[in-house]
Amino acid sequence: MSSGCGHAVEYLYRYLDEELTWSHRIRIRWHLRRCPHCCSAFEFEAKLKELIRERGCDEPPPELFDRLHALIQQETGEIS
Ligand SMILES: [Zn+2]
User: Is 8 exposed, middle or buried, given 0-12, 13-18 or 19+ CB atoms closer than 10 A?
Assistant: First the structure.
């Protein structure tokens, strides 16, 4: 079991919003390297955010969310 998942998830959104100090960012990157669970969650959020920015909308459409989720599950080889 990996430790620090709670903190990683807690800081995930702030990381993506670039609201964190460098020490927090390093700590999260370190955790992501060791924790596939948080890593896939992080990639999902990062891709979603990227797409939202490209489209210039505030709310992601539900089908986009589903498609991304499927994509990342394929990448990580997880079936849920
Ligand atoms: Zn984790």
Answer: buried
Tokens 């955790």, located at residue:
31
- Distance (Å) of CA 16 to CA 37, 41, 79, 80: 17, 12, 26, 25
Rounded to whole angstroms, how far apart are CA atoms 68 and 73?
A: 9
pTM of the model: 0.58
* Distance of CA 62 from the midpoint of ligand 1 (Å): 26
Query: Alpha-carbon distance 42 to 2, whole Å?
Result: 15
pLDDT tens track for 60-72: 677 777 877 777 6
Ligand 1 centre and the CA of 36: distance in Å?
7
